[in-house]
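Two proteins, back to back. First:
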Amino acid sequence: MWREYRFRIPAGEPPGVYWYHPHVHGFTNPQVLGGASGALIVEGIERANRELAGLPERLLVIRDQDLLHPDAQPAKSGFVPPVLKDAEGDILNTGTGTGKPAKDLSINFVPVPYPDYPPATVMVRPSERQLWHILNASAITYLDIQIMVGNQPQSIGVVSLDGTPINENGMARDRVLWVDHVFLPPAARVAFIFKGVPKGTRPRLITRSVDTGPAGENDPARPLASITPSDDAPEQPLLPASPEPLPASSLTWLGGVKPMETRKLYFSERPEDPNRANSPTVFMITVDGQTPAPFNPHAIHPDITVHQGDVEDWVIENRSQESHTFHIHELHFLLTKWDGVPVDEPFLRDTINVPYWNGKSEQYPSVTLRMDFRNADTVGTFVYHCHLLEHEDGGMMGTIQVLPTSGGPGTGAGPR
């Protein structure tokens, strides 16, 4: 059956990378593993950051899939713990994760399978600066993106995370955050300045190893693509060279708004049948004070109700021994605390990892997020969930209803 969907992009939607995929509860993981996903770019990021004006633009979508060769032994030229080297002996990564990955990866549908990891090829003009968008469209695989030249990581200039420029709402104009790697949990996106490489170099795009916990998946270091500088590289589309700046937001910067309420939610797991060794795992995300239970798609009432115009702080705890990725539809949030300690991270996200609990400490790992319901378009019922889709399908999802307010957008006023 064919269906046609039409979407209106709001005029004030932040420019950057978004994405789409099936969201049928219980079937999301296999469908996304099968490649049912795509990127969506809201144009105009050069209007938010003049450093990007006129740059060539490139999109890389990284997906995961079941192992093509699950019984294969690691290649002799592969991993040498704790250092990953390529065939010529250049160090690719100093991460400690090795061995068979939980899933294979692909880049723009070019598989990079275990155990040999034959990389895809990305051709670039010599020494040309470009804007790269990278989307982690994996169902369950964490990425830690890095560009290596020889034995050295190359700095990349981050300009956007999760579809939102990092110089939003009066922050430093034309801000570029230069780093040597970017951590991308499933569903996260980044846009960065690739500063260019000269002829004769052999750069590689890799993912570093990620420790997802004793109950998690194995995400070892591995190459994704060889970057080939060549005069014959295909031309990439160019961003406008003389963009008109985006208008300033009429809303107070989220970090300067006092939250109206603080809520605690927590990730947890349990075996469906404690008496069976191979019992399926039940995954849950629970509002503190409610009874832990997996997501019920037939529930009549939402798990959380707020009003348009509200700003709240949500503390998200992880009470399990594997990492979980918190994601919410329809809005972005600000990270204000990590394990209860204030952080200065003045940019917005819609996806964030919550590290695993070690099973011993009295304090669970947590993030504190300032949730922004001031946008007039953020009204209705939608979901928040772990974006490891196996976990979401297993019940780690909840619903939130945002009710309209009579006090006008952004005021937080109205009947309660």
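And the second protein:
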Amino acid sequence: MLTAAHGELVLTNFSATKPLKVMAVGDSITDDCVYNGAWRQYLQPLLEANGYAFTFVGRESSTPSGGFTKTNHEGMCGAVIAPPGVFAVHGYTAANAYLQKTVADALTNVTPDVVLVLIGANDIGRGRDPWLTATNDMPNLLNLIISNAPAANVILAKITTMQSANNIGGLNYSTYANNVSIYNAALQRMVNQRRAAGQNVFLADMFSVVDYATMFNGDHLHPNPAGLQAIAGEWLTRIQSITIQTNPVVSVLVKGGDNWKYFDAGQDLGTNWTRPDYDDSGWSNGLARLGYGDKEAATTVNYGVSTNKHPTTYFRHTFVVPADVTFTNLVLRLAQEHGSVVWLNGQELWRTNLPAGPIAYTNLALVKPANLDSPYIFNPVTVDVSKLSPGTNVIAVELHQFSATFPVIGFDMELIGTGTQITVPALSLTMSGTNLVFSWPADAGSGFGLYSNTNLATTNWTQVSAPVLTNGGQLVATQALDPGSEFFRLQKP
């Protein structure tokens, strides 16, 4: 499987005569309250350009404009998730304009294949408890969607920042801006729990992609056109990550909120701890976000004593790269406080907020976070895809404090790969006396070599030195049988 998903969209199941039905659900950021078509006008051409035969479904309709022709939706200006509602809209009284009711009504008329849900700004901005909103109100909405459309893939979205949001229906939503990251962290945790239980529920991250400084209107709640385009791009990435098609492939190799092993005993581990074959069996483990002094943390790590906190905490996570994909691009999305070095299979992949040169256990981060949101933004950076290896990979992160007395650290990340699917030839094995004879089809095996390894816990595969000959349409390599265990596979150099 290309993702950790339990449900995928098989693109060949849909066509112009049987389009993928996408329901856009949300509040004014989805509805036409500020801009006709909102982010939907930007998502339509993205989906069409990437081979999706689709239509938007819903009871409401925007005004067609230019290439924006698929105008139906379930956006509701001023909507909240759970009762009571706030604003009368689209024929609903104020008390009834909440998604647990409006979406239930909508699903009596149509069964969507994909539901995109961006909601929570009005809930949080009006002082509703962020934890209960994410872990009670949203799950009830999710249950309602799943019960009416059990085969649908539902993508929930983290909401955008509300720093400086003002005069929203006479209220300053910025009063509760610090609750946004709590809501988003709880939503991420709930989504991952649902995925672990086998539900087709996924997460998009509008909090990180809509820039505070450049992508909002003057009220600092509603995204401007650049922000709406960023939202559409994030929806596309998440839809692609659950789609099975010939090409391209988008795979979330490491997802936000994954389980990590961590070492928080306040000891210098040197350099070997980044290697795939390092023994981390004695480490603790827990879900990201990992840290301390942070309401957003899912796992609290140890810091020692408050007047002399550990300068560095270590993290490791194992993931599998499918052998039938050639990844050509790799994006690291890192949310951290304060400084980090990221390693992939023992090689440095990225560092941030730390000095250049060799990094020591005692190194401290260079600067504090710029603002209250910055530690929770998953900042994207394109990294060296050649460091990925087919099969098991280990990503390791060392998180460095800003000072010995600073009260908070935190860490979470995603790793997203894009590439193309390839046909992997079947490898056959026979014996000839005391020799192993490997063969694979010549027509599909061009460019593949035979590699061996004595330990599946490492990524250090070595190309077999035996010559490869062609015999009856097969590529054949003969290898002497060695004592002990040995593993073989085909891969491209």
